Amino acid sequence: MACGADAPRAGRLAWRLRNGFAVASPIAERLLASARVRRFAGGAVQLLAERRYVTTERALLSCMVAACVVLGAVAFAATGSAVGAVAIVVCALAGAAGLARAAADRRGDSVRDAVPDVLRSMGTCFDAGLSLQQTLAQVASEADGPLRSLFAHGAHVLDTGGSATEALGGLRQGSGASELAFVAVALDVQHQTGGSMRQVLDAARDSVEGELALRRSLKVQTAQAKLSAQVVSVMPFALVAVFSLVSEDFLSPFFASPAGWALLGLALGMQAAGVGMVRRVLAAGAAS
């Protein structure tokens, strides 16, 4: 597989993503102290790995820091305003975060939607008398996307002498889907204690299908609130960036007096409060 279609990409971009920028590495290391940044970087690394780009969290963040510095310098040269340059960088970061989040959501949805078919295929394999290693290999040959590599890795662990706990543990941790993690735990317990795998898989499939229906309903109900949160978060910075490009002295009056500084501080505080309120609404809707 390393020499075929799943081989890591080559080229200047792949090399840069793999090695990062040494100058920006200390800043990336400090950013990784934040749990939210670590989650974002970890998800981005996983998404890039699925596109055959090999990188690490620190290397990826160092590339992002370097890109922000270059973009900020170009924006400052174009607008002549430091605030406008910062607004453009913030908009670019928000756009990148939105794309990464959308890609992660699509990946999660594709994994969850494929779980019932995977469970049905696994049940058929166990009924045919295949072993756990043969079942994982068979599912890997039939599945698409992230699940293919996960099941192939599990089969490889068993084929090289690893235990079922190790193989299913990798499947549980790498899926990123609670539905598949639950199935991996159930299979591990059932494999150790013995019994019918078919009953476990049928019960898991019924549970997963019900949870998928609930997730789809919740996604439809919270779509408008999520769009509102994105507009509230990005629109002010986008407007500042546009006006700074049109008029270089657009924000100069705000820095000419203490009242201007106070108004800017009030605007940023209202912006943070609005984003926080919308996120609380989304969290409350997801919890209910």
TrEMBL record:
It is a multi-pass membrane protein. It is found in: Cell membrane. Keywords: Cell membrane, Membrane, Transmembrane, Transmembrane helix. Residues 119-243 form the Type II secretion system protein GspF domain. The keyword Cell membrane applies. The chain crosses the membrane at residues 59-78, 84-104, 227-247, 259-278. InterPro entries: T2SS_GspF_dom (IPR018076), T2SS_GspF_sf (IPR042094). It holds the Pfam family T2SSF. The keyword Cell wall biogenesis/degradation does not apply. GO terms for cellular component: plasma membrane. It comes from the Bacteria. This is Type II secretion system protein.
